[in-house]
User: Which sequence fits this backbone?
């Protein structure tokens, strides 16, 4: 609503459809707005937002699986990850890809992450395996059919290990969780910087985008995300009180 008119054309408000815009917000899709950043590479306001609807669908799947009792089966998520990985490899090598490829790819990544959690006490965690996993991930990047699976499994293992055991990285646990804000705001910051200076050096741009994204991520955390998470504690407190009242009454 703010950046769109600034970086759109003269007919921005004439072409703006509030109904389509609200529908895009409710369905967690990229904002349905008139063209912005025209005549640039990826002329959109925030191309990072395409992942949000898929992420939400994965949450709904977990809710559905949980209500159906499927998550009680230890190997359910691992089996789901395996099946989605097979579909993903088939999509990459087949000349006739299967429908809903993006959704199956997200479910693969989501279920791999869930499997790491389910088997966290049975998986061996050490720096040697983390280093080997990282190197294996790098090598698989040159083979398109299994590149994304390699990122999910092997890079995922390395990230989880160093996030929990990396001595020099554990200090980040004292920093507010700004990762999601950094991810969301980096794209529009990138577009704005290059819109004003198309000849901007790539390394200079990366440094500026990184720093500005941290600032925006921090603002998002303190002004939006952290206050929103406070509601969860409020509802949890009410549920505990209701349980206590039921216990006393019985």
Assistant:
């Amino acid at each position: 609503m703010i950046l769109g008119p600034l970086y759109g054309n003269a007919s921005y408000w004439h072409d703006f459809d509030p109904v389509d815009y609200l529908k895009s917000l409710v369905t967690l899709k990229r904002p349905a707005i008139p063209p912005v950043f025209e005549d640039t590479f990826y002329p959109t306001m925030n191309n990072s937002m395409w992942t949000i609807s898929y992420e939400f669908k994965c949450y709904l799947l977990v809710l559905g699986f949980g209500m159906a009792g499927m998550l009680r089966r230890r190997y359910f998520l691992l089996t789901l990850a395996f099946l989605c990985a097979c579909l993903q490899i088939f999509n990459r090598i087949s000349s006739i890809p299967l429908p809903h490829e993006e959704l199956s790819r997200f479910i693969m990544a989501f279920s791999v992450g869930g499997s790491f959690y389910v088997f966290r006490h049975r998986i061996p965690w050490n720096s040697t395996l983390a280093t080997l996993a990282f190197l294996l991930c790098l090598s698989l990047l040159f083979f398109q059919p299994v590149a994304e699976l390699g990122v999910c499994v092997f890079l995922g293992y390395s990230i989880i290990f160093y996030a929990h055991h990396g001595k020099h990285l554990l200090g980040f646990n004292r920093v507010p969780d700004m990762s999601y804000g950094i991810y969301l705001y980096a794209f529009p910051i990138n577009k704005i910087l290059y819109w004003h200076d198309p000849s901007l050096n790539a390394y200079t741009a990366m440094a500026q985008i990184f720093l500005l994204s941290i600032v925006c991520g921090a603002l998002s955390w303190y002004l939006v995300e952290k206050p929103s998470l406070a509601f969860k504690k409020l509802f949890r407190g009410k549920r505990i009180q209701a349980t206590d009242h039921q216990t006393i009454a019985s």
Notes: The mean pLDDT is 87.
